[in-house]
Amino acid sequence: MAKKILLTGHRGYIGACLYQHLSQRFQVEIISERLEALRPKSREADLIVHCAANREVQNPSQTALYQSNELGSLRLLESLSAPTPVLFLSSRMVYASASSESGWRESDLLQPQTAYGQSKWATEQKIVASGFPYLILRLSGVFGLGIAQWGRTFPEQVLRHLLKRERVVFSQAEEIRDYLYIWDLVKQIDYLLDCPDVWPGILNLSGKPRPVKPILASLLQTFTETFGESPLICQETITPSRQGPPLLNIEKAQSLPNLPKWSDDADVIQALVQDAWVRFGPSQSPACQ
Fold first, then answer.
1. E strand or H helix that includes residue 137
2. 4-143+179-205 CATH
3. CA–CA gap between residue 97 and residue 92 (Å, rounded)
4. Which end of the chain is more exposed for a tag (fewer CB within 10 A), N or C?
5. SS3 80
6. Distances from the Cα of 11 to the Cα of 235, 262, 281, 284, angstroms
7. Distance between CA 106 and CA 128 in Å, rounded?
8. Residue 129 to residue 134: CA distance in whole angstroms
């Protein structure tokens, strides 16, 4: 009989992809009600995959963050009828905003600078204190085409501007990002579910740190070839005033012998632009309405 997984956040960007993928080899039960409304000792499963979270990173309500991220997670743990392994999707936002020279390691001191990061850290602590087996995954920015959803990283933001025929302004300064493709993440999570060496534990997951410019160049070229028009591009000569997100040290994850490898950025961009063409081609483009 297939292992039963209890999945939270199945309507979200990551959760929807996990639901589709994991359902191929597990019995996946979703939680559709609000987590803070769960009754004690009302759920049974072989494993919990906890994706649900309030994703309003910039200007969230403290009350909303507490209820959905902290209280909801606590009620989820209390709803289990027996100690159950929990895989929790945390965030790089639990680290300080500036990157260390070698990237933040799992053992580094946590200094979340946002309410969102603080709520993730608080949830991590609740899971560890529960006594349940756990695997906490601290994720970098996740990008690419999911289940009819795009990520929220820089490439998707640029593509949205292009579809509205808006000018795109970016810095000439060399910026490094460690975006992780959504389907690479899903495959890595699937692998980690059956990887006893990392349970219990905490693991950083990200893509390979690389310059943003080649990703942007690939996006602009693919957009031009697909839509038949040249985007409006402007390069700034000044260094951006806002520091980029913290980079993660992923030596621990990369030491695992069979962790699924990364996809090519060009393939990820191609899928995004093709989806944009299907949904917002010339006859449906927002600029034409």
1. strand 134-139
2. 3.40.50.720
3. 9
4. N
5. strand
6. 37, 24, 26, 25
7. 14
8. 10
Quick one: which of 44, 32, 36, 61 has its CA closest to 4?
A: 44
Tracing tokens 């260390």 back to the chain, one arrives at 100
Domain boundaries, the chain: 4-143+179-205, 154-177+210-246+263-288
- Give tens-digit pLDDT for 36-94: 899 999 999 999 999 998 766 555 556 666 667 889 999 999 999 999 999 999 999 99
Q: Which of 59-63, 114-118, 151-155, 202-206 has the lowest mean pLDDT?
A: 59-63
Contact 112, 121 (CB under 8 A): yes
Q: Which two tokens stand for residue 211?
A: 């310059």
Yes or no: say if 121 and 96 are a contact pair by the CB < 8 Å rule: no
Average pLDDT over residues 108-117: 89
CA quadruple 280, 283, 284, 287: dihedral sign: positive
C-beta neighbour count of 215 within 10 angstroms: 21
DSSP 3: P
Give dist(CA 210, CA 230) in Å, integer. 25
**d(C-alpha 264, C-alpha 271), whole Å:** 11
